[in-house]
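Format notes (please read before filing issues)

Several people have asked whether sequences and structure tokens are stored in separate files. They are not. Every record keeps both together, in the order shown below: the sequence lines, then the token lines. Line labels are part of the format and must not be stripped during preprocessing.
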Amino acid sequence: MYTEGFRKQYDEQGFVIVMGLIDPSEFTPLQDACARAIDKSRKAEWMHRRTVGRQFPPYADEKDVDVWGVQHLMHPELGEIAFVKWYTGNRMAEVAKALLGCREEELQMELFNLLINPEQNNFALRWHRDDVSEKASEVEEKKALGVWHHGIQWNTALYRDACLYVVPGSHKTPRTPEQRKHSETMTPPDDPFDMPGAIQVVLEPGETVFYNSNILHCATYDSTVLRATLHATIGDTRGGATRARNVLQHGMDWIKGEGFRKTLEKIEDDKTRQRALLMYTNLLKMQEGVNAKDLGYSLSN
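Then the structure lines:
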């Protein structure tokens, strides 16, 4: 299913669009689970949220705020097993192994969140790379881009999604002076197409875009357009601690409790359950190997 050309495009362009990663039997359960998670987040019954006014972690923890994302979809207290099954399922694992070039036992569980439309205000993210400061010099940028090889990130649309903009190939090269001008600012762009080389990524329901999270990218959120897009990362243990800050800055202490392991053990399919537990063990090992408090945050708001 996933050819060498598929991986070649991802490596060269920094992104690739894949269809068919949601089985028809999974589509409605995922939409329903999203609706419940969104409702809890908007009512401040689920406080692991991305809030308007904060582009990057840490997010505001006040109750009376507009919300553009739901964090930690696999958290046992959220209680939505459909998310756990899909994230650890066979289809996603096959793509992850193909793009990372790794073995199944090297897959590392990481983040699983949900991107949604805010209700009260339009919102946008500025041009950025997820784990490289906008103030990085050309030398610092080259160094940072050179070590980012051990994780994938993706958006899977449950409804049509035209929010993401990327600059193809920018995951490999430092910014040009003109690109730097458009990405050093702390504010979102008035027009994403002002960025040299920018394209808009449009996903139909069920389509997934995998992208290197250090590709130059930004996003716009229209409060009038329904959005429920699964947003996640998977790592490769060969990267060691290189992914620790990008993952742990979102607050992952909840994975240590017995509740999450018990959630994984509820997966009926033997192969998926075994994979999930192994991916979980690999995440724990990474978390135990670093002090999350010393890692700080990748980007500033």
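For reference, the curators noted about this record: The chain has a mean pLDDT of 91. The longest strand covers residues 107-116.
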